[in-house]
Amino acid sequence: MTTVLQARGLTKHYGHVVAMDNTDFDLRAGEILAVIGDNGAGKSTLIKALTGAVIPDSGTISLKGEEVHFRDALDARKAGIETVYQELGVAPALDITQNLYLGREQRRKGFLGTVFRKLDKPAMRRGSARQMADLGIRVQSIRQKVETLSGGQRQAVAVARVAAWATSVVIMDEPTAALGVRETNQVLGLIERVRENGLPVVLISHNMPNVFQVADRIHIHRLGRRIALVDPNSTTMEEAVAVMTGAKSPESLGGRA
Amino acid sequence: MNTTRRLAAAGIAMTLLTGAAACGSKDEAASGGSGGDVTIGIVELNLSNPFFGTLEKATEAAATAKGWKVMKAEAKVPGDSATQVTAIENMIARNVKAIVLDPANPTALVDVVKKARDKGILVVTVNATLTPIDAADATFATDNTNAGKLIGQWAKGTVTSNPRIAMLDFDLSDGPAGGRHNGFLEGYGIAEGAPEIAGSALTKGTVETGQSAMENLLSAHSDINLVYTINEPVAHGAYTAMKNKGVESKVTTVSVDGACSGVQDVKDGIIGATAMQFPSKMGEMAVAAAAEYIANGTKPKSGLTDSGTVLITDKPVAGLESQTSEWGLQNCWGEK
Amino acid sequence: MTDTKPADAALLEQGEDRGGPVRAFVSSQVAGPLAALVLAVLVFSLTTSTFLNAGNLSLIATQSVVVGTLALGQTLIILTAGIDLANGAIMVMAAVVIGKLATDGNALWALVAGLVVCLVLGGLNGVLISRFSLPPFIVTLGVLSVLTAAARLYTDSQSYPISSDLLTILNDGPSIGGVDITYGVMLWIGLTAVLGYALTQTAWGVRVYAVGDNRAAAALTGIKVKRVLLSVYLTAAVVYAFAAWQALGRTPTADPSGYGTANLDSITAVVIGGTSLFGGRGGVVGTFIGALIVTVLANGLTQAGIDSLYQQVATGVLVVIAVAVDHFVRTRQTR
Ligand SMILES: Nc1ncnc2c1ncn2[C@@H]1O[C@H](COP(=O)(O)OP(=O)(O)O)[C@@H](O)[C@H]1O
Ligand SMILES: [Mg+2]
């Protein structure tokens, strides 16, 4: 199985605080990798380093075997890494199509596009309808304004946008934190669908049942570094939490992946 | 966003704001009241109308000619009495000897004026009166009712058959505006609501509001042949409306003010007659009253002292005293 | 939503928008203002004999152009959740600069100078608001105060009569079947069409709505929020320059004390036209109708012989209704 995104020895200091302490990271093609850890363990900092939002003090990142140096989030996005943020990243007054294409609108061909800057609305509608159908997201119409959707549907739109534009990796930082049980399940199903469509997913979550439900591997983060990488089929939830909180040493785990 | 930059920008914004506030109340007195130094206060309406600027400048010039110091303040918008109240409170605190006030509202300033007078400060109003009129020590103003009456009488003698009148007013709670309106009706010899009045509309005393009001009235009453206007900018705007409709030769317009631009409009046939006011004279009379009070404690005669009104027209009406626009251009106020 | 049945892409794309085009129009932003306009026109047509004729209707359009044009620029700014209290003052400043320069110079160059004045002042607002993230209300309030004084100082409170044909051309126009349609009205309609196109048919427009709707989300998708904001203030400035030209055409006098409430009047037109003060919703067509509504009220009530103060009452009631409708729309749809 090939490794898509890899990091070695990432370190980041904020004054005296060590947010990343020589940590490693590995994401394989076609997997859902859950990243768990206590508050302040450094999960978000790691993700930001991988998406160009934070520049590490030292360490290397490589994408599909090639070393990369992202200067900002746009660099990472150009390399095909897309992120769903915890805060709902959608514009409620715009419709689904406009949200999916926000910042990447398509223009008409010919002088209508070049001179009159006219949007190619039919093409964008086709594209977003296909994307929503591919992911099995059920809404009445892609012309619906996002504000008419439920919280779960909105997060689904955010996921759909990311999945539509990502060509190598999808990252989600606590995508279900604001959702109820039923909606959370819908989004988890969606994450699995993204994997089925061929993109690896990094899922940061606090919710252990969710993590064990969908993850192929679990990256356990503690005190700024990865202390274990486990297989959820051979590790229990209790064990993972114990390691995550420092109650148990990572060596004691059986199912190392 | 970097913090220092934000602070710098906030600083710029604050400077803009305080700069603007400073424009609203200039304070040229170093210190008031001590050691024989005399300071008087001048409180004006908003200076966007050159009439008030002329009045303020004349008052200030007369006061500085006497070697006095001057504290000045102006309302920010028409009717802005709150700024004037604050200004008078500040002047009381600075121990001014007299205050020359052009009140933005006839009643809102009565209390603060009483406070000043209780402190022994002479308060005279110019251009407009307080209600009751003896709330101030004296008033030097155009008798606006008389001004309205003059143009009303002239109109009566000019538009003799089938009068259809449009009234282009300013907020009638404003003292001068109400006086002119009533005076015009009295001079013309009709009552409020008389059938001769085709319609009336409120303006803001500016060219463009005069134009819109006249357009609306003409649209409803194409037979209008006499237009009363609160001031000359409104008359000018009304003329544009008539000209656009091609009825300007059939309509006679009367106004009040006597600004040089208005007198020019009389000369050009845009305005039939206007009642000229004398703002400089108001200011000078007010300063003379203050000088008398400061020198020997004599208060001026209470009530309204008319600073004079002259009818300006190039089509005189028999039995009604008037001056030509030539004379008017010699004696008008504001930029020529 | 993510059940096993795949959604049908063709069906999704067709967008069976509950109830078809009629329902879609009724729930669109323009329907409410248009209904109010039709109602006002009906009432005045039935109660006065002089309201409903071609001459008066063309007069209403002519009377709407100055505040209506200003309100187009204001709409762009309000769509980004901003506000411009200085637009009237910017227009007046441009008008007096044009008037003064044209008095002893070339009218065309004076007009260009007016455009430059608008761009500099709109740019100042835009930079302070976008680059330094200062609140639009405060920035434009400050600029308003400065400009009100500056216009007076620059002109010594005098107004300049305008005689140049170029400067007053917007008051001219062809007479179609005895009805005068001024070039100013045509320009107003043209500007509404161009801005309407830009807002609904280009990526710039989508981004303007996105920035006003959810700034954080817009930034996360890679939209350069500050650049969009600056472009909006500069575009509005160009529109204000057209408004200054409209003002000189309508009233051939560059008057520093004129249009003292044009800023609030333009906001009134925008709000009555259905654009949300919270940003992200509305558009220029609504504003066009909103400006007409305000003029119709003034014109109709004057003709009906009703005290002008009731114009302000009626306008105020409409503003409250518009804001209440907007509030209802936003809270109902935000589940
Ligand atoms: N921009 C920053 N400045 C200073 N300290 C930071 C910054 N970002 C993160 N940290 C610190 O680094 C540590 C890891 O934070 P974070 O990556 O947000 O953890 P997590 O997402 O696992 O809760 C925390 O102690 C946090 O306070
Ligand atoms: Mg975090």
Automatic annotation (TrEMBL), chain A:
InterPro entries: AAA+_ATPase, ABC_carbohydrate_import_ATPase, ABC_transporter-like_ATP-bd, ABC_transporter-like_CS, P-loop_NTPase. It comes from the Bacteria. Residues 5-248 form the ABC transporter domain. GO terms for molecular function: ATP binding. Signal peptide: none annotated. Keywords: ATP-binding, Nucleotide-binding. SMART domains: AAA. Pfam families: ABC_tran. This is ATP-binding cassette domain-containing protein. It comes from Paractinoplanes bogorensis. The lineage of its organism: Bacteria, Bacillati, Actinomycetota, Actinomycetes, Micromonosporales.
UniProtKB/TrEMBL annotation, chain B:
It comes from the Bacteria. Keywords: Signal. The keyword Signal applies. InterPro entries: Peripla_BP_I, SBP_2_dom. Residues 42-295 form the Periplasmic binding protein domain. PROSITE patterns: PROKAR_LIPOPROTEIN. Residues 1-22 form the signal peptide. It is found in: Cell envelope. Pfam families: Peripla_BP_4 (PF13407). Belongs to the bacterial solute-binding protein 2 family. This is Substrate-binding domain-containing protein. It comes from Paractinoplanes bogorensis.
UniProtKB/TrEMBL annotation, chain C:
Pfam families: BPD_transp_2. The keyword Transmembrane helix applies. The keyword Cell division does not apply. InterPro entries: ABC_transp_permease. It is found in: Cell membrane. It is a multi-pass membrane protein. The chain crosses the membrane at residues 34-55, 76-101, 107-129, 136-155, 175-199, 228-248, 260-278, 285-303, 309-329. Keywords: Cell membrane, Membrane, Transmembrane, Transmembrane helix. This is ABC transporter permease. It comes from Paractinoplanes bogorensis.
